[in-house]
Amino acid sequence: MDTETFQALVIDKQGERFEIGVKELTVEDLPEGEVLIRVSFSGVNYKDGLACLPNSSIVRTYPHVPGIDLAGTVVASTDPRFQAGQAVLVTGFELGVSHFGGLSQMARVPADWVVPLPPGLEPHDAMAIGTAGLTAAMSIDRLEHNGLQPGQGPVLVTGATGGVGSFAVALLAARGYHVAASTGKAAEHDYLRSLGAQEIIDRSELSPESIKPLEKQRWAAAVDPVGGKSLAYLLASIRYGGSVAVSGLTGGGAIPTRVHPFILRGVNLLGIDSVQYPAERRYELWKRTAEDLLPTGHLSRIARRIRLDEVPHYAEEILQGRIKGRVIVEL
């Protein structure tokens, strides 16, 4: 098995020379781990786009195989929790960062990163959901843990045409929430409504020239994968006792906010990290997400399939904000 060849997207940088492309590897080229997986599908995430840059802040050593999520079948395992032929998925941890990732027909990973595929969830559906869908599900789970329920008022989703945003809209709508979706893309209003958005908010509304310490109370809660100045406006606009779940910083890492929303309205700012989210809690979250989404048919609207050799192009597109929904890679 160690000499069996397979294809992987390999990034290499030696001095000023930078290369990215599909290459043949063997199992001997893979890093250590208890579980060897034949990968069926992976995805292209924003972090994967960063990994494909010549001066990446993501990749720690070269050569490198990107891909922060994967789904496939166990080939071999030295951990008794997993057996050959078992359908599994992996997202987060160090996959595609310090450890060879999922944009490869074979992957070897630590057993503690591996999650059994829930019943009824096919590998391509799992990767249509992927890290983006898991992050959206985590965001909603935290909001509900902090008291959010349908009927309390509209829930805002920023960056709504992106991966996390698309899934947040679809999941919230499936659970009976009134969803307000924010986007700067006028051509995508019908797409967002097809996922269940009941209101469309222009992105410019969320970044006024000046933000008052407290704005008019508009939303019961918000899912925010954008961050930056618009997050400051969200915090000032959330209704009393509401929460904002933030998972991204495409709008910037600085928040020009004040303490007023927190101490005068009891607003909660909830940080969402899908990288180190405990593996023992992931299965139930994946299971509920699949149960919410599969009956809706939204996965076919949110995800498109590409080939492995198309990844560099789509990695650039996702960094430029030109991707709607999810891009999954068939291996």
Automatic annotation (TrEMBL):
It comes from the Bacteria. Its EC number is 1.3.1.95. Signal peptide: none annotated. InterPro entries: Acrylyl-CoA_reductase_AcuI, ADH-like_C, ADH-like_N, ER, GroES-like_sf, NAD(P)-bd_dom_sf, Zn-ADH-like_protein. Residues 15-329 form the Enoyl reductase (ER) domain. The keyword Protein biosynthesis does not apply. GO terms for molecular function: acryloyl-CoA reductase (NADH) activity. Gene3D superfamilies: Medium-chain alcohol dehydrogenases, catalytic domain, NAD(P)-binding Rossmann-like Domain. Keywords: Oxidoreductase. SUPFAM superfamilies: GroES-like (SSF50129), NAD(P)-binding Rossmann-fold domains (SSF51735). This is Acryloyl-CoA reductase. It comes from Paenibacillus vulneris. The lineage of its organism: Bacteria, Bacillati, Bacillota, Bacilli, Bacillales.
